[in-house]
Amino acid sequence: MMENKPRKGRKWLLLLAIVFVAGPCYAYNSFTLSGTTLAMLYPYFKSEIDARMVSHFPEQIPESATGVRFWYYPGGLQSLTMMQLRYKLPNQEFTAAVEEFLEPRSLALEERDAEMNHSGRFRNERNTGREVLPADFRVRMLHSSSDGEESGIAISDDRHEIIYWYDRD
Q: 73, 45 in Cβ contact below 8 A?
């Protein structure tokens, strides 16, 4: 009778599978899915999202913008996809850029927007983590879908700063 002993070849095959399958998967998750802050990639990532959800985002980052911070995180199996573009504009340009978003809203929408401000979903000023926005920001949710997508704008009149945001659960 022959015993069913594991062969050395199977161990090598398992080792090769780990190196050539698990290794690249780990590298992909570690580097590709870690998010990017490269503002030059903004037009590309914006084009990857449903146009209806990011129609309020600018086509390009204005040349006069200062303090530009961009964040894109593609999400994964059960993680949130996020894109945020944040910058400051000179006074007149700021007023023109936010004018369309400042129309009066219903009390229910104002309450929902206030909750968004305290959600901790926004990137901090250094773009190193998430935080609750300072009190001088007004948040406006502009688009929402049944698929868990939300997008909008956060505006600070005091700072002349705008944050365009998009999230998908």
A: no
The answer to whether 87 and 67 are in contact (CB under 8 A) is: yes
Domain annotation covers residue 3: no
Select from 12, 61, 19 the least CA-distant residue to 40: 61
State whether 94 and 117 are in the same domain.
Answer: yes
pLDDT beyond 80 at 154: yes
Distance CA 154, CA 150 (A): 13
Domain match, 29 and 68 both: no
CB 153 within 8 A of CB 162: yes
**Distance between terminal CA atoms of the chain?**
57
Q: Is there a domain that residue 2 lies in?
A: no
For residue 27, give its domain range. Answer: 8-33
pLDDT tens-digit map of 13-69: 666 666 666 555 554 444 444 678 889 999 999 998 999 999 999 999 999 999 999
Check whether residue 66 and residue 131 sit in a common domain: yes
Close Cβ partners of 39 (under 8 Å, ≥ 6 residues apart) = 61, 68, 69, 70, 85
pTM of the predicted protein model = 0.73
Say what the pLDDT of residue 37 is: 83
Q: Would 1 be classed as within a structural domain?
A: no
